[in-house]
Specification:
Glycerol-3-phosphate (1)-acyltransferase; 216 residues; alpha/beta; 8 helices; 17% strand; seven-stranded mixed sheet
């Protein structure tokens, strides 16, 4: 985790002096890929050509604290991450996430959560592409949990397509309950673009099949 901490601090330091949001996201992606190389983790991205040329909502499985880093390394700098509000209070990480234009959502206070959801919808309606981990959290159990409605409600209200994306290998590299990083391949796979009311169930089924984990 030393390389992760050092490169994270370096990414934050550089981004404090970068004025444009897209440029800050590009810097973060460079540092994310540098971390994976420094850790000796093989990394590949498949299906990036399937990403729409219009604003969209990406939904991905969540198995490790590395998922956000890996998604940032894989995606173009057009995406804001929708993240649980507790991350705001994490030293350095909260500041870096704010500099990257992340959207923070309250999970436990219904009133504040509703206000945050409306703000996220407004961001999407303005043309901002978003990344959600719709399981909301992860555990040591190898499964794809139930998808919360937020990502799909946002996409519907903003008239945006859903993109199903599978993240392979992060559970092996940094399992739940440990800070010890293992050298094992990670792959990000853009699966397909979905529309309509069945996008929530369909995306979950496709992601589970891709990563080889059962539905919860």
């Amino acid at each position: 985790m030393t390389a992760f901490t050092v490169l994270g601090a370096a990414a934050l330091t550089v981004n404090l002096f970068v004025p444009r949001l897209r440029a800050r996201r590009r810097v973060a992606a460079v540092f994310a890929r540098a971390f994976l190389r420094a850790a000796g983790i093989p990394f590949a991205v498949l299906g990036a050509d399937l990403l729409p040329r219009v604003p969209c909502v990406v939904v991905a499985n969540h198995a490790s604290y590395l998922d956000g880093v890996v998604a940032a390394a894989a995606l173009p700098p057009d995406f804001a991450f929708v993240i649980k509000k507790e991350m705001v209070r994490v030293p350095l990480a909260g500041l870096l996430l704010r500099r990257l234009g992340s959207e923070f959502v309250e999970r436990f206070d219904p009133h504040r959560g509703a206000a945050d959801a409306r703000r996220v919808v407004r961001s999407a309606a303005s043309g901002q592409s978003l990344v959600f981990f719709p399981e909301g959290t992860f555990t040591e159990v190898r499964q794809v949990g139930r998808f919360l409605r937020g990502a799909f409600a946002t996409a519907t209200r903003a008239g945006m397509p859903i993109v199903a994306m599978a993240i392979h290998g992060t559970r092996n590299v940094l399992p739940s309950g440990t800070i010890r990083i293992r050298r094992s391949p990670i792959k990000v796979e853009v699966l397909c673009v979905l529309h309509g009311e069945d996008a929530r169930d369909r995306s979950r089924e496709l992601i589970a099949a891709a990563v080889g984990e059962p539905l919860a």
